[in-house]
Give the backbone structure.
Amino acid sequence: MATNPQDEKLRAELASLRLDRGPAAAPVKPRRQRRRVLPVVIAVALLAALAAWILLAGRAVPVTVVYATLAASGQAGPAPVLSGSGYIVTGDRYVSIGVRVPGRIERYFVEEGQTVHRGDALVQLDDRDYRAAVARTEAQLAVARANLDLAEAELRRNRALRRNGVVSAQELDVQENKASVARATVAQLEAELAQARVNLEYTVLRAPTDGVILAKLKEVGEIAVPGGFAGSGDLVRMANLTDIRAEVDVNEADLNRIHLGQRAQVTPDAYPDARYPAAVVKLYPQVDRQKGTLKVEVHVLEPDARLLPDMSARITFLADPAPAAEAERPAVLVPAAALRRDAAGNTFVWVVRDGRARQAPVETAGEVGDRIRIAKGLSGGEAIVVGTPPARDGARVRIADPGA
């Protein structure tokens, strides 16, 4: 078959344009290469983590510790069983003294904060009207007694004349009636005079009991009237500070831990270092339905001038005295910051032994000031971790220098 010269020439030109790439390269398989590299990377990461863990496990972590205190027998005092915030009150609450007769306030005999005794004068009302009423009634009584004397004298004469038949029985009856009316008038005016004198006494308000003046409720020159709305007739408010108490609302779920006569302790917020012994003297007879609480009162046994009505305070109820054998056992005390709780709610502390931190389960038995009484789990003298806890049980630790 004949070849066309033009076709040959075209093939030659195409052949001159072809690039020589050499032998063909083998196809790349990227997925297989990544599969071979991934285990190596994982192995390196695991080795690095293992090395870091070994390095950290071998390093002692600094911790801050305190030492469990072993208190002598009776030194820690009775164990608290319940605590709550309340207020200082007085046994008689507040005594508001008001007027019993209307009048203008003339002067006060006392000032706020002044101590008064039963019967001391507190306020003087304008008494001119009441003195006049007494004088008027005394005069009326004098007239009535004079009339009575005259009526009785006439009655005696008429009785004698009646025996002689000079006067009739009717005239004697009239005279006896006049004498009876005169006697009744005298009795009536004597009662009115007694009332007038009482009203005159009421113009001076006196202290019904010993106490301290808390407030003067009206100013000199104002008109005071008995009763009224919201005690508008009250002039002085006082309190008997010899019977100081504290009241607190106790949740009804905790009432089984409170009883009459139970020992307690009162700590005013204004003086947190003060401790006042007290005793439960009143459990109110009705629970507050909305709050679910019962008001409890404790009597402060040794009050002083620092305790003032309405002062906020913390009331701590104490456990009953323990049996002699139990009371002789020493108490272990630790700071409240040392106590921890695990996921199950169990209480424990971190104890440092032989350079390692160990969890030590404990049982608490109330508060003693700012420390916690430990009933079981510690014997005293242990180094207890406070602040940042160790990473795990058994971790190597070292006690940090307090001055660092």
User: Anything to note?
Assistant: Residues 73 and 106 are 63 Å apart (CA to CA). The chain has five helices and 24 strands. The chain has a mean pLDDT of 82. Helices lie at 5-17, 30-57, 128-163, 169-202, 324-327.
